[in-house]
Amino acid sequence: MAIQNGLLQSQVNALTGQNAQLQAANVELATQLNTPNQTIQEQQNQIAQILAQLNVVGQQVQNLAQSFQALFNDLQFQIPGATPAQQIANLVAAIGNLNFGQKQALYLNLGGTKPGKGR
Q1: What confidence score (pLDDT) does residue 118 get?
Q2: For residue 96, how many C-alpha atoms fall within 13 Å in the half-sphere facing its CB?
Q3: How many CB atoms lie within 10 A of CB 105?
Q4: Is 103 exposed, middle or buried (0-12, 13-18, 19+ CB in 10 A)?
């Protein structure tokens, strides 16, 4: 019986040592995870900000489409594109296709100066 108790006590001691090692490793790993977890949180915050900005742009594109619908009495009009990014790309392409006079009017409306006036 004493031999069995000695063996059991030896096993308990070995397991206690292993447990201490595992707990130390767990603390070390948890510490190592702090930086990646912080990075993940920062990136999630950045994604949320980008999505909020994208929603604002999408709403502005929608507002422009609604303005054209009212101005030209065409309630079916939509700026082509499945996403705000595609709609912006299509707007840029449409602006590029304007004639000189139309581009000049847009330029002036965006704060450009009349030719020959300089800044």
Answers
A1: 57
A2: 6
A3: 13
A4: middle
For residue 54, what are its two tokens? 């994208």
In the chain (119 residues long), the average pLDDT of successive 10-residue segments reads 85 92 93 93 97 94 97 97 95 97 96 76
Q: Same domain for 64 and 88?
A: no
CA distance to 18, 38, 39, 51, 56, per residue, from 45 (Å)? 40, 11, 10, 10, 17
Question: If DSSP codes are grouped into helix, strand and coil, which group holds residue 51?
Answer: helix
What token pair was written down for 25? Answer: 């490793």
In this structure, the answer to whether residues 26 and 39 fall within a common structural domain is yes
Residue with the two structure tokens 């767990």: 26
Q: Are residues 116 and 96 in the same domain?
A: yes
Q: Which long-range contacts (CB under 8 A, 24 or more apart) does 111-117 make?
A: none
User: One-letter amino acid identity for 30?
Assistant: A
Q: How far is CA 111 from CA 93, 94, 101, in A?
A: 20, 20, 15
Residue 17 and residue 45 in one domain: yes
